[in-house]
């Protein structure tokens, strides 16, 4: 009888020991995985001691998880209060230009742990109906963030809409404004390509680019065509300069953002007074897609939507030459105003 009790006792001790060892191994593995999933930027000491104004590194972990749940409406008011989250008006806006790379720029800036992006275009300042709803309506369209993070939204229609500069000025006269541009003729063709694809999806026919870009009566560039007008960057910028000094604008090279994004992003970090956090590790070239994709951490990567990087239709070379000649004087003036020169033909 005594022998049986000893055997049972040894079996119980063996089971308890196995459970204890298993639990210990799980905790070790768990701690290791949590350490690997720390945000990329956030290693204390890598960039020197953290200032009082910087966000605690642990708090930044909520950026990819908790904040996402809050954006989906899955959080209570008490959870929001406990985590000290707010919906802030943007401190910077990507105002344009259409087909210049606004979505790519926004998504790439979102790699920075101090940046929180509005996932949808709000169209507050360029839409009279939305604007009439008031600034509080606009603020509630913003994502939840920590007080020290910067909220950024993008609506490329802002750049070309006449009422927008004054409306944004009334909200915040010191706001930082980002404009991303591409070579004007390429941008116009890209604009046309997007519209063409939309027409084809609806089984509708559409004019060739040449017929829209060139006035058939004068054989000159058709300045009434919206894709052409949008590419006259200096005309739109001059309207903005009536309200904001040039120092509040930063011009991003959309063509370079495609081929060599990191230097462009580093310049934006500096313009926004953000500590340098985006590195080459965060950007990797996807040969299948033909452009750079984003790496947030060891488990989370992201590429832009398949609609990005559309193949442009063939355009008559004489039309391209005519457009480039037309845009040339406007480009020169744009270089002078912004202090940035591009290698546009």
General description of the model:
It catalyses: alpha-D-glucosaminyl-[heparan sulfate](n) + 3'-phosphoadenylyl sulfate = 3-sulfo-alpha-D-glucosaminyl-[heparan sulfate](n) + adenosine 3',5'-bisphosphate + H(+). It comes from Coturnix japonica. InterPro entries: NST/OST, P-loop_NTPase, Sulfotransferase_dom. The protein has 345 residues and is α/β, with parallel strands linked by helices. The protein contains 15 helices and 10 strands. A 5-stranded parallel β-sheet has the order 3-5-2-6-7. A 3-stranded antiparallel β-sheet has the order 8-9-10, with no helix packed on it. A two-stranded antiparallel ribbon has the order 1-4. Strand 9 and strand 10 form a beta hairpin. It is globular and about 65 Å long. About 11% of the residues have low confidence.
Number of helices: 15
Strand order of the biggest β-sheet: 3-5-2-6-7
Order of helices and strands: HHHHEEHEHHEEHEHHHHEHHEEEH
Instruction: Count all strands and give the number.
Output: 10
- Average pLDDT metric: 83
Q: In angstroms, what separates the terminal alpha carbons?
A: 98 Å
Shape: globular
Instruction: Profile the largest sheet.
Output: 5 strands, parallel
- Overall helicity: 40-55%
Q: What fraction of the residues are assigned to beta strands by DSSP?
A: 5-15%
Assembly state:
single chain
What class do helices, strands and sheet pairing give? alpha/beta
Poorly predicted runs are 24-62
What is the CA-atom radius of gyration, in angstroms? 26 Å
Transmembrane segments: 12-29
Subcellular location: Golgi apparatus membrane
EC number: 2.8.2.-
GO biological process, one term: heparan sulfate proteoglycan biosynthetic process
